[in-house]
């Protein structure tokens, strides 16, 4: 086991802890009776799932020379494409939100 493997395992652990927190905290908030905060968190989770689903459906299962060389199948290729498209959609949304907030501040 080398240092890269250890780093990957730490990244996987952090990823799964973040996913668990993303799911668990709205449920805890809902149980405690803070429905308004739980509702906004659940809306965010549903929106993120929707973006990932749209990205997965939109990404092609390309098979090219690079994919064959790296032994990447059509399913993995589709997941890689979905991850990239999801990233692009989220970055584009953040850019739009940033410009919107700047323009709104100019007119206030």
Task: From the structure above, extract its key features.
single chain; 4 helices; 85% helix
Structure description:
This protein has 108 residues and is mainly alpha-helical. It has one domain. 85% of the residues lie in helices and 0% in strands. The protein has four helices and no strands. It has helices at 3-32, 35-58, 65-69, 74-106. Helix 1 packs across helix 2. The chain is extended and about 55 Å long.
Offer a quick outline of the entry.
The chain has helices at residues 3-32, 35-58, 65-69, 74-106. The chain has 108 residues and is mainly alpha-helical.
SS-derived structural category: mainly alpha
The tally of structural domains comes to: 1
Major beta-sheet overview? none
Gross morphology is: extended
Query: What is the helix content?
Result: over 70%
Taken as a percent bin, the fraction of beta residues is under 5%
Number of helices: 4
In whole angstroms, the N-to-C terminal distance is 57 Å
């Amino acid at each position: 086991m080398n240092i890269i493997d250890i780093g990957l395992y730490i990244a996987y652990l952090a990823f799964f802890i973040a996913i668990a927190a993303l799911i668990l905290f709205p449920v805890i908030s809902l149980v405690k009776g803070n429905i308004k905060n739980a509702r906004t968190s659940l809306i965010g989770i549903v929106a993120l799932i929707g973006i990932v689903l749209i990205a997965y459906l939109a990404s092609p299962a390309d098979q090219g020379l690079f994919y064959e060389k790296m032994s990447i199948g059509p399913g993995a290729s589709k997941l890689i494409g979905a991850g990239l498209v999801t990233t692009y959609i989220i970055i584009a949304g953040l850019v739009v939100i940033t410009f919107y907030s700047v323009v709104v501040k100019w007119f206030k």
